[in-house]
């Protein structure tokens, strides 16, 4: 596994940012721990997903690259695959639900992605992507349930642990599980005993319930401000999380907003609500992290400025 992550990292390095790790004395005082924020909000297109999308395309054959790639996504992975494809001279077909934010559709078009809109259901997204696959011969790249995507995402954990090899914990948000799966594999490969913990809103706590029940659970509601974490796990991500993630801490919407505001105010950086879930989990479980060294994955910074949760 270590060899696979290193090879993936070397493959994508020319096309991604090596994002900084920053600290905040104030937030350390508030939490009682030593926190190291891995700033994927500074990644190209504003989120960690650039890593996985790039690795997935680079693993395709020349013939596959000529026919292009297709995915379905309402946001960050749509932008990531479009930009990664553009950088590599590959055509991208992006299926987006009709209710996806205009700002995200505009970004995808700006990166050269050809958008096909569909009804805002998973069934419609999957069937539309399948139709494009058959018509164009394009290769489908899953936003998270793809091992090459996960290996690309693992590079963020590799960078963090190379800079701070003695972390006690790394905390990552959990949506479909592509990020935390990569982080967990990196912790196995590049640390001695660093435990990986997931952070998830109560409103969409499918990963927490999946670990509890021993099978993939789904969300009955998607009523959360953390719009990047509404997706349920896939079989690949579930297996990695079930075997290699210590546990998942759930957070309230109020805790997410407070954590997001704290990072904006104290660290002077822009993160999206999904990123704030990781710090929210630390803040509601302070005793667990007191006097510990904790890596915090800030997964992205793509914010709708017309719809901020605080004034």
TrEMBL record:
Its cofactor is pyridoxal 5'-phosphate. Signal peptide: none annotated. Pfam families: PALP. One of its GO terms (biological process) is D-serine biosynthetic process. Residues 12-300 form the Tryptophan synthase beta chain-like PALP domain. SUPFAM superfamilies: Tryptophan synthase beta subunit-like PLP-dependent enzymes. The keyword Lyase applies. Keywords: Lyase, Pyridoxal phosphate. GO terms for molecular function: ATP binding; D-serine ammonia-lyase activity; L-serine ammonia-lyase activity; magnesium ion binding; pyridoxal phosphate binding; serine racemase activity; threonine racemase activity. Belongs to the serine/threonine dehydratase family. This is Pyridoxal-phosphate dependent enzyme. The lineage of its organism: Bacteria, Pseudomonadati, Bacteroidota, Flavobacteriia, Flavobacteriales.
